[in-house]
Design brief:
By secondary structure, the chain is mainly alpha-helical. It contains ten helices and three strands.
Length: 275
Amino acid sequence: MALDTQIDTFIQSLSTEKGYSQHTCRAYSRDLESFGSFLAENRFADRNPRPDKDPGSVDGAPLPSDNKKRRYLFGAEEIDGPTIRAYLGFLHKKNKKVTIARKLSSLRSFFRYLVKRGILKDSPADAILTPKQEQRIPVYLPVDEMFGLLDSIKIDSLLGLRNRAIFETLYSCGIRVSELAGLNVLNVDLKGGLVRVLGKGNRERIVPIGKAAATAIAAYRDKLREVLDHPSDEQGPLFLNKNGGRLSSRSIARILDKLAMESGLTIPVSPHAMR
């Protein structure tokens, strides 16, 4: 079985068997494709031509569109520990240690999957040590600056009420920005002070929500019902974009960047820092 097929099967198992999100599956796929490309251009270069060249053409005419995805003429059975170490050495030239550690973790998961399926007897990645990580001080906002940011959000408009509710909720509940973006109206019990969150691996958990955040959500939803020509969908997203759809994680991050700039914050801030 060729490496690209083995990778595709592994990624599919992450989604169907482990319930990983599309974002996580794409990250694994990118890491493994990076490894495969390194092998194809170094370890197996003599028998794995570039995907944009036709191996049967003298002038290197482009391949048909359905063949542009790289295919490998080798499998995981041919990969050993020294080959993986050579790849890590290649990564050290342009990547941070945290990136290298993540890519090695992806390789370990992939090879362990192949061992579990009986394709390999042993994993060539298990004996390789993870690069020692640099200790970094986490970036976060002091309480005074956090309150200053929240208080700076003007609530004289629907979008202002929404933004205040978003970041009060993010700060109060300590949830991931992707989890906040995925909240539906029915996930929030304002009277009970609880929020049902769908986290990684489609696992649900219940987290408390403070009074300030609950009050901000209630004010936003009340204003939303006044502004809309039709009743808001109680089954739909809790926070809406200007077109009435669900806000994305990137949109929330962009809103936070704008608010931080307007409030005069000197510390770089992100949704994760608020968490």
